[in-house]
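Tokens as discussed.
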């Protein structure tokens, strides 16, 4: 495969962080163009990465300092790699020494991806088992209820008095009216 342009991509998550270390490494790798942005890796919409994808052509190599600069999760990394593959674009990670322009680099990338997927499945199994064990001991996960039993008694009394609207009662209890009505409705069905 003919190698085209080397395109660098640098990303930091917050405005307080700088891309200097990444930019220096990408310049040493002789990238002809470098895209950089300050955006969380969890964000699906990263404008500079989108621009990079729009400009990358068959034979180009996208170079990153570390894989976590390109994607926050394995799923995101695999999806991004699928987009690269569709365009005939390869990937090189300087820190992890992965280069998909070589057969061994492709194998290494797929092994890392498979191991990460396996680890995620194991974590999911452990979390599920832990939740089941907690339920068997009578514990329930989730967010604590916004309104106590006393709050609900007070809400019913205020509403029965006719002097308060549901908005005023909710404001008094420092919750939204939706939260108040949901709690009153759940209590009625229990």
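Sequence:
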């Amino acid at each position: 495969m003919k190698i085209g342009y080397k395109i660098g991509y640098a990303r930091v998550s917050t405005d307080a962080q700088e891309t200097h270390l990444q930019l220096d490494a990408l310049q040493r790798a002789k990238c002809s163009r470098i895209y950089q942005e300050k955006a969380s890796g969890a964000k699906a919409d990263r404008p500079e990465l989108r621009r990079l994808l729009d400009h990358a052509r068959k034979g180009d190599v996208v170079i990153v300092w570390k894989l976590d600069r390109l994607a926050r999760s394995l799923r995101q990394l695999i999806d991004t790699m699928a987009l690269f593959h569709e365009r005939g674009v390869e990937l090189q990670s300087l820190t992890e020494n992965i280069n998909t322009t070589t057969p061994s680099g492709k194998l290494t990338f797929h092994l890392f991806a498979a191991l990460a997927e396996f680890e995620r499945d194991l974590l999911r199994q452990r979390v599920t088992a832990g939740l089941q064990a907690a339920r068997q001991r009578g514990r329930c996960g989730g967010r604590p209820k916004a309104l106590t039993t006393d709050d609900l008694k007070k809400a019913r009394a205020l509403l029965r008095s006719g002097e308060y609207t549901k908005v005023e009662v909710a404001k008094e209890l420092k919750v939204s009216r939706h939260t108040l009505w949901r709690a009153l409705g759940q209590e009625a069905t229990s």
